Structures are given as C-alpha cells and as structure tokens.
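Study this one:
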Amino acid sequence: MTTRGPGSEFIVEPQDRVLAFLADPATHGGAEVREIRTHGSAVYIAGERVLKLKRAVLYPFMDYSTVAKRRDACVDEVRLNRRTAPTLYQGVAPILDVEGRLTLGKIVEDPGAIEALDWVVIMQRFDEDGQFDRLLEAGKLDAETLDAAARAIAAFHRTAEPVEPLGGGGAAQAVSQVLEGNLNWMRDYVGFPADRVDAMREACRTALAAVTPLLDGRGQAGWVRECHGDLHLRNICLIDGKPTPFDCIEFNPAFARIDILYDLAFLVMDLIARNAGEAANLVFRRYLEALPEALEALAAMPLFLGMRAQIRAKVEGAAVPLQSDPQAAEAIAEEAMRYFDLAGSFLAPATPAVFAVGGPSGTGKSSLAGALAPRLGRLPGAVVLRSDAIRKELFGKSALEELPPEAYLSAVSEKVYAIMEGRVKTILQGGYAVVLDATFTHPDSRQRAEALAASMSVPFQGYWLEAPAELLADRISARQGDVSDATADVMRDQFAQGWGVVSWARIDASVGLASMAEQAFGYITA
C-alpha cells in the first residue's frame, strides 16, 4: 500500500522489519548502532562498518519504489563512488529472509542473480571529524587541504566519462529545465514571493541566453560528464590524509551528468554561504590552475553558482511547512531567503579588471596575489595566474616539483608569458578579474601587461613589491613546499640586472602580509 510521507514523497512499501533488523546491535556483532535517516536512505553506523539502505520511497526525482530499483541504485552507488573513494565502498550485500528470520548476506559481485528482501551498500567507517563541513567549523580546513581538494576534483573531472546532456536538445536546454523547475517549485510549493521569483527568473533567463552557445559547445566538446552531482562540504572527507569526495548522486542521472564547472560550483557556493569566501576563492583558482581548459566556461560560472544557491533555497524552503515549532519554521525560512539572495548576488553584473603583482623573488608576490583575489571582481573573486605554475605545467611537472635549468631560458619565459596573456583574455571575456603573479623584472613584460588590459578595455592596476636583498635571501632559504624554484642566487641576479623605471604602485614587502594587502587595497580605493 502506498502512503504519503511527511514531505512530497510516497512511501511505497513498509520496511519496518528491515529497519528494525539493521538497528539491532545483534546484526552488527553486538556493536552499538547509530542510525541516520535522510529523505532517501537509512544509514547504520556500527563498529568499523557502515550499512546504507535505500528507503522504499518515490519522489518526482527519485524512484526507489521496488526492490529491484533499490538493488540497482546500490550497485550504481558503489560503482560511481569507487571513482573517487575506492577504499570506502566495499560492495553490495543482500538482506535475506531465511525461514522467517532476517540475515545479512555476504557482498556479492552479481546482485541480479540473487533474490533478496532488500539490499544495502556496505562502507568502511571513517572519522566524521574529517568531513570538510566539520573541519571548517573547527577552523581546521587549511589552505593546503583546500588546494589538495581542488586538485583532486580537477583530476576527477579530467577523467570522468563524457556523456550526452540530459533533459532536452542540448546542455543549455537541460540547464533551462532545471532553472524553470526550481523557480516554479519555490513559487508554487515553497511560497517564495512571486515578484521576487519572477525577478530571479528574468535574471536567470538573461544569463542563460548569454551563455547558451557556450553551454551547447561545452556539451559537444565533451565537458558534460558523469560528475559527482552533490559536491558540497559534507560530501568530502579526509581519508588517509587525502581529500576524498564521496556519496555522489546515483539516483537520478540528470543531476550528475552535468558540466564539470556546475559540479565545482556546489562546493564554491557552499563555502561562500558559510562565510568562507577566501577558501572558496582558493578552491576556485587552484581548480582552474589544475584544469585550465575550464577557463573557457567561466562565463557560465555565475549562472552555475546562482543555480546551486537556488537549489539550497528550495530545499531549505521546502522544510518550513514541516516544522511544528513556529520559531524553527521562521529560522529556516530566513535561511532559505538568505540562499535566495545569495543566488542574486552571483548573478549581479561586475566589471572585470587586470591586476599584476611583480617584484624580485622572495617578496611575497604569490601571497599578496592570494590575499587580493577573494576581494576582486565578482564572486568568488579573481582568478590568479602564476607564472611559476604555468612553467611547471609546460614541463609536465606538479606545482612542487623542481624544474631543470633549461626551463628558465628566455625562450621558455616568453612562452610562459604568451600562455598567461592568452588566459588573461579568456578570463576577462568570462567576466572575471585576473591577478597576474610573476616577477615582471623586464620592463617589456610590464608594458605588455598594461597593453593587454588596454586592448580589452578593462582597468589595470600594477603592484611592485620591494624589500632589501638580505631579507629576501633569508625568506627564500626558509621556503618549504613553494611553487617557485628561485634561489637566493637567482634573486641576487635579478638585483644585479635591475628592472628599470617602475611606474607601478610600490608595496613595502618587508612587512607582514596583512600590511602589504592594506597598502595594495589603498591604491584601488584611492
């Protein structure tokens, strides 16, 4: 018998016996059991093992209405999540009824060959304090971890399987259907003010029209892929010290077969919504550094971020009528509107600009560029192009691998600057600000940066960092895990060769980063 659940779902069959069986410590060798229920699953954590049952529910977007469908969803969950978290997902096991007594079968390779009362995904338990939402709350989500996460996600997206866009005649049509569905739901079922929803709809339609050729071209070029689909902070954890995305969407292919930047947008939006704008910018720019092909899609990023915030507004708003406590309902409604307003912030127009940070090695150019970027241009801030990282990319090296001496010949440096300039144009055309991080010790390189901004009709601001050579030598000697290979001797050669007359804003680099940033922002607001 089908019954209506507390939300929009239909409970299609009772699972009381199975739920009681999984909640029983005897099922887990006497270990204490912790149960977590979501709209689609019931999770049981006991000892070193986690069992995840699909609930017998039917939503407009999720169909677990039969045992066979729940079994197939379990198989898909393991298959898809093993791409990023192979050690967590151990397999699929049947729940069997043996002469009226329930028992948990062994993990099977061919679930279709077994008849079972129900099915569970079996996972290895992990330290929940290592989930990114908890790390952020505890103040432990540091730059190194965020950098590693951005690069892990970029590596996953690079190898994810290209797929045909679902939901219509192309990628843009699929995006349009998601947008219209979300906005109609917020107006008709969640009760958002119709005038505000209509204003948001107009902003989204305008943004979508501007990037429709881009989105369809992305789909045709293979950048719509079998992604994660639910890539927020709670679905990334540290496993053996490495950022590991898990719990991807398996129940609805349309939610996961998306542009790779739409996948990334969930994490970036989640960080911004949690007042971690600097972290969001770091993930954004390091992802683009690891996967520069994604720069071509930057013009669609504001729309993607806005859609992610809208979905969160929809989910929060849908929970309001389920609350029995008026104060709780009011708090959730306020949170829903906060996400709705955030969506509008992502879609707000912004003027792109070029910023350049130059100076001899050891002056802290990369640190200043990173401090400036979150506060420049549209959310989540400016893209940073590091000449050192591009040079490593040219030679097929990771950011921290050392390059041979020939990598620093003038011909190579010319190629690095040419690549940088090409990417600047792409970023500006996408509507974002860009920060150039290079020595710029040759006058021609500074002139070219200024001319590039002028050719794109955008504002330019250059910074020249300076400090005594002895201080810079000490800093360079103390470096660890830095993208730059420059030694103290390289820095002294820069001083010996000189850099000519510098017209850029002078920054005293002998002080701390906070003071350097204050000096830099002073020139912007002056």
About this structure: Residues 360 and 439 are 6 Å apart (CA to CA). The chain has three domains: 3-125, 132-347, 354-525. Residues 4-9 have pLDDT under 50 and may be disordered. The longest helix spans residues 194-221.
